[in-house]
């Protein structure tokens, strides 16, 4: 386990998060339940914010809200004085509902819809990260109608391979995201945007992947972006004053991953800042405004999911399945990426693991697993199982598959727990169903 001040095993051997005993949480709120540790996620936001402020100067942390989006998250990000990255009209709407300052939002998306572009302009979003020529044309036209000029970044692809799962790599030459520096597409798009009267190109964005521990790939990506900035200054006379290096910092899921403290993440960011400063010196550039977009590392380890163990099935000599009351509908990451997790029995968290089991969900799908080969003490029906590091890309990718209810989420702090996402009801499931008269 990657324990911390707000996630530990108490004297009774119970898993405790944000001062709350997980057994008590399960009893009070039911399971499955997402639990978010407020101190941890604020601590991560502050770590990034303060490191940029003290080690770099002009910069902005944008919480990548695709990792976990709900009104409370935007409210916390606002209180911590950071920005947000949104990638759809829905995420933007949620941020607006929470009173988030639009000027601190960057809108992403490889295929932003016309209505999303219009809505973002109505909201006054600070930055658009442009990812195709038609988007630039459409945005320019919309701004012309409104008599405004919109600040934009261009998403480029520096062609850096991040050491992570191939499905979450985004900066290899074959990617639906960004424009390749190497092929000349990035320069062509820079020219395309610079020719637009109603777009003000501020600089470049790149995101090289996710769950990356290897600092060097970030540093190389930063260096390549700065080289491109220098090139654009020389060939087009364009002086970029913003550089957004995306997100992707890795987190602990199992003991195969590094364990970082807040200081560890600060050191990670310092290495990246060092590379930016060095690159600027090398290419004779002024320091640009530096942006980063961490999602997973802010909210991933802050979250855990509590389940109740149900059926236990042992297939002799093959595998033991421990089934829980959740599954791919609350956590599709194993199905999508074969992701690995650490689980503990919340009421017997101090017991030594004695067996390797697969944690199965309750969906009608063989691949519906939370994880395989998890180390656990012998689980019994009724035990509360806590799966750790589920804060990122779980709730945000949840579905109502098999018409299961998406679990609620609670925010815990100093021994108090409050809903930040209410439980769904069966009524919610049929809310948008329509039964034509002739079928009645
Ligand atoms: C453009 C962009 N920024 C930021 C992120 C957040 O990455 P992470 O959650 O790994 O920090 C992503 C994730 O896919 C992304 O695509």
Structure summarized in a few sentences:
With 440 residues, the protein is of the alpha/beta class.
Would you mind describing this structure in some detail?
The protein has helices at 22-29, 38-55, 71-79, 89-97, 114-123, 133-146, 185-194, 215-236, 262-283, 296-299, 333-337, 426-430, and strands spanning 7-9, 15-17, 20-21, 33-37, 59-64, 83-86, 105-107, 127-130, 150-157, 179-180, 199-205, 242-244, 289-292, 303-315, 319-324, 343-345, 355-360, 369-376, 384-387, 409-413, 416-421. The protein has 440 residues and is of the alpha/beta class. The protein has two domains: 7-31 and 303-390 and 392-422, Lyase, Ornithine Decarboxylase, Chain A, domain 1 (Beta Barrel), CATH 2.40.37.10; 38-299, Alanine racemase (TIM Barrel), CATH 3.20.20.10. The strands form three sheets. Strands 4, 14, 15, 16, 17, 18, 19, 20 and 21 form a nine-stranded mixed β-sheet that branches. The protein has an eight-stranded parallel barrel with strand order 5-6-7-8-9-11-12-13, surrounded by six helices. Strands 1-2-3 form a three-stranded antiparallel β-sheet. Strand 5 (59-64), helix 3 and strand 6 (83-86) form a beta-alpha-beta unit. The structure holds pyridoxal-5'-phosphate.
């Amino acid at each position: 386990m990657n324990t911390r001040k707000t996630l530990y095993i108490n004297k009774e051997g119970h898993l405790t998060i944000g001062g709350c005993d997980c057994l008590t949480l399960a009893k009070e709120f039911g399971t499955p339940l997402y639990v978010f540790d407020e101190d941890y996620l604020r601590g991560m936001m502050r770590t990034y914010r303060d490191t940029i402020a003290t080690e770099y100067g002009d910069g902005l942390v944008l919480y990548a809200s695709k990792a976990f989006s709900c009104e409370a998250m935007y409210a916390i990000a606002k209180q911590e004085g950071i920005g947000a990255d949104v990638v759809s009209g829905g995420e933007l709407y949620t941020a607006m509902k929470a009173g988030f300052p639009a000027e601190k939002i960057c809108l992403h998306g490889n295929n932003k819809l016309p209505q999303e572009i219009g809505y973002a302009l109505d909201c006054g979003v600070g930055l658009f990260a442009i990812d195709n020529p038609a988007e630039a044309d459409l945005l320019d036209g919309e701004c012309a109608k409104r008599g405004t000029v919109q600040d934009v970044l261009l998403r480029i692809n520096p062609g850096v391979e991040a050491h992570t799962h191939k499905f979450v790599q985004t900066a290899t030459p074959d990617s639906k995201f960004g424009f390749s520096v190497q092929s000349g597409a990035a320069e062509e798009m820079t020219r395309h945007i610079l020719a637009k009267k109603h777009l003000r190109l501020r600089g470049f964005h790149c995101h090289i992947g996710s769950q990356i521990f290897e600092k060097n790939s970030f540093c190389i990506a930063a260096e390549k972006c700065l080289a491109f900035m220098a090139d654009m200054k020389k060939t087009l006379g364009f002086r970029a004053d913003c550089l957004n290096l995306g997100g992707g910092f890795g987190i602990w899921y199992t003991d195969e991953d590094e364990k970082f403290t807040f200081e560890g993440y600060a050191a990670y960011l310092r290495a990246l800042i060092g590379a930016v400063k060095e690159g600027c010196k090398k290419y004779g550039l002024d320091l640009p405004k530096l942006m980063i977009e961490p999602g997973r590392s802010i909210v991933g380890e802050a979250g855990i999911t509590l389940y109740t163990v149900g059926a236990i099935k042992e297939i002799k000599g093959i595998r033991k399945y421990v089934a829980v009351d959740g599954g791919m509908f609350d956590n599709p990451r194993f199905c999508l990426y074969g992701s690995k997790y650490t689980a503990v029995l919340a009421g017997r968290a101090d017991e030594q693991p004695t067996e390797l089991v697969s944690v199965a969900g309750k969906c009608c799908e063989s691949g519906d697993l939370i994880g395989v080969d998890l180390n656990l003490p012998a689980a019994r029906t009724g035990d509360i199982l806590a799966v750790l590091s589920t804060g990122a890309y779980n709730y945000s990718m949840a579905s109502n598959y098999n018409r299961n209810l998406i679990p609620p989420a609670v925010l815990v702090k100093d021994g108090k727990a409050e809903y930040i996402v209410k439980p769904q009801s069966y009524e919610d499931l049929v809310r948008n169903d329509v039964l034509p008269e002739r079928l009645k």
